[in-house]
């Protein structure tokens, strides 16, 4: 079952003192987030495939960090990287966009808005919607209407009372934000934010 504590721990371990994003804890954090599956099936199905693809990259190339992955894939040139639909960079970019959506949703959940459908829609419109075709955007918006209440979500976090869940979200969100920020900067620096 989902554990916010495990996700928090994984994203806490992600960033080194040198501001590198370690891939093993990153993937561990995503494996934890995927356990929200039934709640976010439209995101988790895609995330499962992306995590599996990144795990395969790790096994073949033994990357430790996101920076190492980017450096390795850029060695062949940006044009060659853009031509590979299964590249690690492209896969990370898709997860990166979903992480932003999740970060915004969790911030909203922490803030106290009781209607999770509103929180989810707002977070989606501010992040993933711009990368999805109209049909996917409509399907996502419909799926959000079936989300459980804020109280049910806080219970799903598996950390105790609603107050304890909100407190732990307050701890977790900065770590997720840090990973997001480092990745955003790295991908912007190498012109990877619009990989097809």
Automatic annotation (TrEMBL):
Subcellular location: Cell membrane; Cytoplasm, Cytosol; Endosome membrane; Golgi apparatus, trans-Golgi network membrane
Keywords for this protein: Cell membrane, Cytoplasm, Endosome, Golgi apparatus, Lipid transport, Lipid-binding, Membrane, Nucleus, Transport
Protein's UniProt name: Ceramide-1-phosphate transfer protein
Gene that this polypeptide is encoded by: Cptp
Biological classification of the source: Eukaryota, Metazoa, Chordata, Craniata, Vertebrata
Domain Glycolipid transfer protein: 22-158
Keyword Cytoplasm recorded: yes
Topology relative to the membrane: Peripheral membrane protein
Catalytic activity: N-(9Z-octadecenoyl)-sphing-4-enine-1-phosphate(in) = N-(9Z-octadecenoyl)-sphing-4-enine-1-phosphate(out); N-(hexadecanoyl)-sphing-4-enine-1-phosphate(in) = N-(hexadecanoyl)-sphing-4-enine-1-phosphate(out)
Cited Pfam families: GLTP
GO cellular component terms attached to this protein's record: cytosol; endosome membrane; Golgi apparatus; nuclear outer membrane; plasma membrane
Superkingdom to which the source organism belongs: Eukaryota
Protein's GO biological process: negative regulation of interleukin-1 beta production
GO molecular function: ceramide 1-phosphate binding; ceramide 1-phosphate transfer activity
Record family assignment: Belongs to the GLTP family.
Alphabetized InterPro entries for the sequence: GLTP_sf, Glycolipid_transfer_prot_dom
């Amino acid at each position: 079952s989902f554990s916010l504590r495990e996700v928090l721990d994984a994203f806490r371990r992600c960033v080194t003192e040198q501001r590198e994003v370690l891939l093993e804890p990153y993937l561990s954090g995503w494996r934890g987030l995927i356990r929200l599956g039934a709640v976010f099936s439209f995101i988790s199905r895609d995330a499962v495939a992306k995590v599996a693809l990144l795990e395969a990259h790790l096994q073949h190339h033994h990357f430790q960090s996101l920076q190492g992955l980017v450096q390795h894939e850029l060695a062949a040139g940006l044009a060659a990287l853009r031509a590979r639909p299964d590249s690690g960079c492209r896969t990370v970019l898709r997860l990166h966009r979903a992480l932003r959506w999740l970060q915004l949703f969790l911030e909203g959940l922490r803030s106290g808005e009781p209607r999770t459908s509103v929180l989810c829609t707002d977070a989606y419109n501010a992040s993933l919607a711009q990368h999805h075709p109209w049909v996917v955007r409509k399907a996502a918006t419909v799926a959000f209407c079936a989300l459980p209440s804020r109280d049910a979500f806080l219970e799903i976090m598996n950390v105790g009372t609603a107050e304890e869940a909100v407190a732990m979200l307050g701890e977790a969100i900065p770590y997720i934000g840090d990973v997001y920020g480092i990745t955003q900067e790295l991908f912007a620096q190498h012109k990877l934010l619009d990989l097809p």
